[in-house]
Structures are given as C-alpha cells and as structure tokens.
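Standup, Tuesday
Yesterday: got the pipeline producing structure tokens again.
Today: sanity-check two examples.
Blockers: none.

Example 1:
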Amino acid sequence: QVQLVESGGGLVQAGGSLRLSCAASGIIFSLSAMDWYRQAPGKQRELVAGITSGGNTNYADYVKGRFTISRDNAKNTVYLQMNSLNAEDTAVYYCYTRPFASGYDYWGQGTQVTVSS
C-alpha cells in the first residue's frame, strides 16, 4: 500500500521559513521522482518543485531562489525547504509521485502553510 505522509506545515510570518517533509512507503523510493504541489483557496493545484530519482530538480518560477527540494533515499523522504515566505505562498502543500514501474498517481493528504503579512 502506497502512503505519502506530509508534515512540517504551520503558521509563519512573512519572511520566515518552513521545511516540509514527505515520508513515502510502499514504493521503490530511490527510483521514483517526487514532486511538491500546492493549492491555494479558489485556485487550481500547481506544481511547486520536483526532483528526479537522480537528484535533478526543477522549480516553478515563483519559488526559484527561495525554495529548495531535496531527498534522502535512506529515509524514503523528500523535503521542501521554503525561505522568504510571503502571503502568496499560503496554500495546502501536497506531495505527489507516480512511482517507478507504476502507472498510478499518488498524493499525500496535504499540509497547510499559512503566511501572515
């Protein structure tokens, strides 16, 4: 059974930082690309950052230079370090993967990030 469990969200002041974690189980983590998405109220879910099994990363333009995605294959965990947060970053953040050798999409339950201005 595939599970993605996010943690690390919360309330932070503008300019502050948070680190999100997503612990994966039931997949061959080291061979699976992992992504972070977010969804703000009234808006569509959007890609924030992704990391391949080989460690290559990509970012949405609006987080480049502020957010960093990383992974620890020994812990089956992907991280999103978020710095210089602003009110527009307020959203529910989701972990996503289409695991290696799987044709299915999996999402975590989401973690709320609220940035007060």
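Example 2:
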Amino acid sequence: QVQLVESGGGLVQAGGSLRLSCSASGTLIGAKTMAWYRQAPGKQRELVASITDTAIANYADFVKGRFTVARLYAKNTLYLQMTSLKPEDTGAYYCSARFIAGPIGTYWGQGTQVTVTS
C-alpha cells in the first residue's frame, strides 16, 4: 500500500501562485505515472497534469503555460506549481500514482483545497 498526502492548498487572489506537494509514504520508483486532478463543487473530477517516470509531462489545455508538474524521487514527492491562478481554478486538488511495480495499483490522496478569489 502507498499513502499519498497532499499539502500546499489555500486561499489566494487571482493572479497569485501556489505550490502543491504530494508526499508518498514510500519510494516513487515503480510509479509509472503520477498526476494531479481537481474537482470543483458540482463538477466531475478532471485531469490537470500528469508526469511519467521518464519525466514526460502533459497538461490540460486550461492550465498550459500556467502550471508545472514535477516529481522528485529523492523526496518521494510530486509537485504542482501553479501561477496566474484564476477563480475557475478553485477546487479540491488530488494527486494519484499508478504503480506498475512494487505495490501495483493506483493510489489517491485525500486532496487539498485551493480557493482563488477575484
């Protein structure tokens, strides 16, 4: 089993920045893909950004150029740097990890709330 814990959410004004972190209880070696999702009230969870074990990153169109995803194996941590935040970025942000070795499976964190005010 792998536990993922997100942190770094909060309240920020439009145009501001936040950095989210997702700490894993163990090594991230074996995690083929890690990703950030978000869910706004009344809406479905949507993919924000993902990154593979070879550092190939992909972004949803609505965050391209504003968000950056990175994973740091030495700290067993996934990051999401968010800049130029907009009110529509408000929501609960979740990280996930899909392991193909070790504890095989897909794991989710509990989420961290991001609220962007206009």
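Quick observation on example 2: The chain has a mean pLDDT of 95. The chain has no helices and eleven strands.
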